[in-house]
Amino acid sequence: MAAREAIVGTDSVPDESTFLFTVREVDTDTQREAILVRAGDGIAGWFNYCQHLTDVALDKGSGASMRDDEIVCVNHGAMFNADSGECTYGPCPGAVLESIDVTTDDGTVWLTETGYAFDHAGPIKTDPAALESSSNVQY
Ligand code: FES
C-alpha cells in the first residue's frame, strides 16, 4: 500500500466551492496547488490549473468556485465536471483536469498520489523576499 498523508477532514471540503491546498513534488521539491471537491458520493482531487491556459490557476487564491456541481475557472469561465474533470463548457472542449490521487476514510481526506507530499492548506506561500526585483540593471 502506498504511503498516505492526511490533507484535511472530510467535513472541511465545502459543498459549493473547493478546498485549496499545496503539495510538494518530492523529487524536485517543487510546490504545486491542488483542490478537493465534492463529486458524487465522494471527494475528488485536481491540480489547480486550467486546461485552457495551463500556466493559469483555476482560482484567484482561495479555491475554485462551483456552479451546478461543476468547477469553474475564474479566468474565462470554463466549466469542468467535478467527478471526471472533463471540460463541459468554455474555451477548452475535450480537455480534462489533471487528477491528484486522494482517498477518504475515518472522516479524513488522504493524499495518495505517488511522488507528492502534503505541504499545507491554502495557496503556495510566496517568500516576500522573492518578490523583490531581481533585475541585473544597476543604477
Ligand atoms: S484560463 Fe481557464 S478558461 Fe481561460
Features:
Rieske Iron-sulfur Protein; single chain; disordered C terminus; 139 residues; binds FE2/S2 (inorganic) cluster; mainly beta; 4-stranded antiparallel sheet
Question: How would you sum up this structure in a few lines?
Answer:
The protein has strands at 5-9, 19-25, 30-39, 42-47, 65-67, 70-72, 79-81, 87-89, 102-105, 108-111, 116-121. It is mainly beta and 139 residues long. The chain is globular.
Average pLDDT: 91
Strand content: 35-45%
User: What is the CATH-assigned architecture?
Assistant: 3-layer Sandwich
For the largest sheet, list the strands in their spatial order.
4-3-2-11
**Which sheet architecture does the biggest sheet show?**
4 strands, antiparallel
Cα-atom radius of gyration:
16 Å
Rounded to the nearest angstrom, the distance between the terminal CA atoms is 58 Å
CATH class: Mainly Beta
- How many helices in DSSP terms? 0
Bound molecules: FE2/S2 (inorganic) cluster
Q: Low-confidence parts lasting 5 or more residues at pLDDT below 50?
A: 133-139
What CATH calls the topology is: Rieske Iron-sulfur Protein
Broad structural category: mainly beta
- Percent of residues in helices comes to under 10%
Overall number of domains: 1
Strand segment tally: 11
CATH fourth-tier homologous superfamily: Rieske [2Fe-2S] iron-sulphur domain
